[in-house]
Design brief:
InterPro entries: AAA+_ATPase, ABC_ATPase_HisP-typ, ABC_transporter-like_ATP-bd, ABC_transporter-like_CS, MetN_ABC_transporter-like, P-loop_NTPase. The structure is a single chain. The chain is α/β, with parallel strands linked by helices. The chain has one domain: P-loop containing nucleotide triphosphate hydrolases (Rossmann fold). It has ten helices and ten strands. The strands form two sheets. It has a six-stranded mixed sheet, with helices on both faces. The chain has a four-stranded antiparallel sheet with strand order 2-1-4-5. A hairpin with a 2-residue loop joins β1 and β2. α4 crosses α5. The structure holds adenosine-5'-triphosphate and magnesium ion (MG). Magnesium ion binds next to α2.
């Protein structure tokens, strides 16, 4: 049994995302090496590690923006579909929030949030709008609904991006450095939304160097280096007694900033 399996077993959660012995190359570069990771339902897993260690690639394989060379990835017990309608459904089940907000520039904030549910989930326009307005309220930008993305601050745009992902009613949310493009004063408003999402029971995989978020909201911290998961531990244990030299070295660098 691997460390991550035992972790999930000990918390008694139903496995929602499972990666087993996943390998991935970009040409000669081995970017994911025998990656095993289990994320239980409702669990919040923070992924950290040096630049180029494979964190974004890991996230991208989970909604099949990247294919894998070998191994197995399942979502809610089912292997990721390769193409077609099933793949579109998978993408809807896996919400993704990137560093660059990726909103549709020519659509209003509200339309950004209603588009997916109408097109991919078959919701009526009225239903989608009601849900969008609820979600925009929840992330604190209800008063911006009729504006265009460029008229919003970065923090507001990122909160809209979170609302847009949530509108699809995903089973899991992936965040890839959601605050690293933001001015410092906007970071907390986004982290607060993520913390409340975590508290609401959403299953989340979050690549971030915001260690305050990891301490407050994470159930586990996963440390990656050179495409491998070197450590998978509870935040308290990871921050106070990291087991691996690479984790110690990494922590000493980011915590002394
Ligand atoms: N599409 C691609 N083609 C070729 N190489 C790639 C591609 N995407 C990523 N890589 C390489 O794979 C490795 C892992 O990249 P990845 O973006 O997953 O790292 P990361 O941990 O997210 O880094 P960062 O902290 O800088 O975001 C890096 O060496 C990167 O240059
Ligand atoms: Mg990255």
């Amino acid at each position: 049994m691997t460390g991550s399996e035992s972790n999930v077993a000990s918390t008694g959660r139903r496995p929602l995302v499972e990666l087993r012995d996943v390998d991935k190359h970009f040409g000669a570069l081995h970017v994911l090496r025998s990656v095993d990771l289990t994320v239980g339902e409702g669990e919040v897993v923070v992924v950290i590690g040096p630049s180029g260690s494979g964190k974004s690639t890991l996230c991208r394989t989970i909604n099949r923006l990247e294919t894998i060379d070998s191994g197995r990835i399942t979502l809610d017990g089912r292997e990721l579909p390769a193409e077609g309608k099933e793949l579109a459904k998978l993408r809807a089940d896996v919400g993704m929030v990137f560093q660059s907000f990726n909103l549709f520039a020519h659509k209003t904030v509200r339309d950004n949030v209603t588009l997916g549910p109408v097109k991919a989930r078959g919701k009526s326009a009225a239903e989608a709008r009601k849900k969008a307005d609820e979600l925009l309220e929840r992330v604190g930008v209800a008063n911006q609904a009729d504006k265009y993305p460029a008229q919003l601050s970065g923090g507001q745009q990122q909160r809209v991006a979170i609302a847009r992902a949530l509108a699809m009613e995903p089973k899991v949310m992936l965040f890839d450095e959601p605050t690293s493009a933001l001015d410092p004063e906007m970071i907390n408003e986004v982290l607060d939304v993520m913390i409340s999402l975590a508290k609401s029971g959403m299953t989340m995989i979050v690549v971030t160097h915001e260690m305050g978020f990891a301490r407050r909201a994470a159930d586990r911290v996963v440390f990656m280096a050179d495409g491998q998961i070197l450590e998978d531990a509870e935040p308290e244990q990871f921050f106070t007694a990291p087991r691996h030299e690479r984790s110690k070295d990494f922590l000493s660098k980011i915590l002394t900033h």
